[in-house]
Write a structure and sequence with these properties.
Blueprint (H helix, E strand, L loop, with lengths): L4 H6 L9 H11 L33 H4 L7 H9 L1 H4 L13 H14 L2
Helix pairs in contact: 2-6, 4-6
Length: 117
Amino acid sequence: MALPRFLERSRLSFETLPTWRNEKKFEECAACHKLQRSEDSVGPSLHGVFSRKAGTLTDFRFSPVMKRSGITWDAKTLDAFLTDPQKVVSANRMPYAGLADAKDRADLIAYLQKTFK
């Protein structure tokens, strides 16, 4: 079914969608993580997280299991980790039960991707 012409012209691409919904998903993370480079908090800075090997920021004290995890962060590995951090990296130091809702995880990851693009 074709969209009416006025709706067709008003379609928004992923790049132009408002990020407030995705940004809202980050609020819980912001209690422990910062987006700025070299601004660690309770958790490591997420600046440049994509393509970074887990546990490699030199100015943050990661758990030994995180350093040995062999994970390189991308949308797929972040999605798995955010679902159940302890299942993906058992005995890691991140005190977070996980984000069960797949749409919420997708919104959060989209926000991070857009932020660091």
